[in-house]
Structures are given as C-alpha cells and as structure tokens.
Amino acid sequence: MPGLPCPVMTEPSYLPPTRASYDTVAGDYAELLRDELARKPFDRAMLAAFAELVRDAGVGPVADLGCGPGRVTAHLDGLGIDAFGIDLSPGMVAVARRMYPGLRFGEGSMTALDLTDGSLGGALAWYSTVHTPPEDLPVPFAEFHRALAPGGYLLIAFKAGDGRVRLEEAYGHPVSLDVYRFPPDQVAGLLGLAGFEEVARLVREADAREKTPQGFLIARKTARRTVGQAVRGTARGTVREPERT
C-alpha cells in the first residue's frame, strides 16, 4: 500500500561472521581436508548408504547444503549420484568450482533455500549445521523438509555432545565462529518435529585429529511438519540450484 515501508528481511545474526570466516580460510581449508574421507571408513559408509537410498528412491538430485570446497559433493558424484553444492561462503564456492569444474556449485543459505518444493531426492548437511545455535535448528530443518520430495532422504553429520566452543583462529587464520555440539537424540527429535522419520544413526568415537564423538543420522521425509509452518527470520530467494553446464 502507498506510504507503507517495505518489510526488510534479515538473515540470522550468526550467518555474516560465519560467511566471512569461511571466506578467509577457504583455500587452506580445502587443502587440509582434501583427502579427509580417505581415512574415515565409517563416514564413507554412511555416505554410501545414503547414496544407495537416494538412488533407489529415484525422486530427484541431491543438494550438498553447506558444501564448502565441494569434496563431499564430488564423493557423491563418484558414487553415481546427481549432486550439486550450495554454500554460504562465496570464497568456498569459488574454490569448489575451481577444484571440481564438472560439478555445479552456487551461493546461498540453508535458512532460505530458493529451491522448488519437493525438488530434491536427497539433502546432505555434512557438518554444515555446527554453527547454528540449537534453538535455531528448526529453521534449516524445515527448509530441508520443504525442498525434499516425499520419500526423499536427509543425511546430517554433526559433532555429538553438548555445549559450545568459541573459535577465534582456525586453519591458520583469524575467524569468528561458534561451534555447537548436539546430542543425537536432540537432533532426531527436532527432525521428527520437522516431518522426518529416522532411518539410521551412527555415533563413532573421535579419531586422533578430533576432540569429540561424531554423529551421523539418515532420515526420510514422510509427513507434513508437526509444528507451525512459519519459519522465523528467513527470506526465500537467496539460494538457487546452480545452472547445469
């Protein structure tokens, strides 16, 4: 209406420092973690199970949400999955495009996916929710559910435990990041409220380079969300599936 200001949609407060931090570390992060999966058989096993479930369901491609430099997107591609990556950090997306020119990568936030409802056969959140405060987890979980087709699968990897760790330096650079650990039952419960059914979970002990156990959970979209449909603080239109080339 004339004379009324247009509403200003703002992103959650933790996203700008997360974006800036990963822009800063992108190149070194990619080099240090390039071969990370090669020494983690349980992580690869969960990715393989997820890929098989998605392939058998046959309802759409997989979005690697918070893909970083694209190494896990490329791993899924190697498993025969039609996968593309989306990341909050333009620096990470630039590295991913350079390292894996045959795959698709784009910028955006998990809190506001510009993906058509029901367009995905799978969604991967490989440690990409670790900077999300626990009280804000329902926001990306609702977006995962919305973007997945009925019968589609979600795989989420996270640091298992409880509490928050503050990082001011990482990968040889200054950063401003909070890293959250989540109890697996809490993650499963929130996914249930979002309309997912748990299929499998794995909690493994920390390896020599880790400080906490690591959690993995596969869930399937089966129902409408059982909580209110309104999602606080989100604005559609910030993430698009990268164009096919």
Provide a concise account of the structure shown:
With 245 residues, the chain is of the alpha/beta class. The chain is built from six helices and nine strands, in the order ααβαβαββαβββαββ. α1 packs parallel to α4 (90-99).
Write the layout of secondary structure elements.
Elements: H1 15-33, H2 41-57, E1 62-65, H3 71-78, E2 83-87, H4 90-99, E3 104-107, E4 120-126, H5 138-147, E5 148-159, E6 163-170, E7 173-181, H6 184-193, E8 196-204, E9 214-221
| End-to-end CA span | 42 Å
Extended strand count = 9
What structural class should be given to the helix and strand makeup?
A: alpha/beta
Tell me the helix content: 25-40%
Largest sheet, spatial ordering of strands: 3-2-1-4-5-9-8
Provide an overview of this structure.
With 245 residues, the protein is α/β, with parallel strands linked by helices. The chain contains 6 helices and 9 strands; from the N terminus they run H-H-E-H-E-H-E-E-H-E-E-E-H-E-E. The strands form 2 sheets. A 7-stranded mixed β-sheet has the order 3-2-1-4-5-9-8, sandwiched between helices. It has a two-stranded antiparallel ribbon with strand order 6-7. The longest helix is centred in the first third of the chain and has 19 residues.
Can you tag this structure with a few keywords?
alpha/beta; seven-stranded mixed sheet; 9 strands
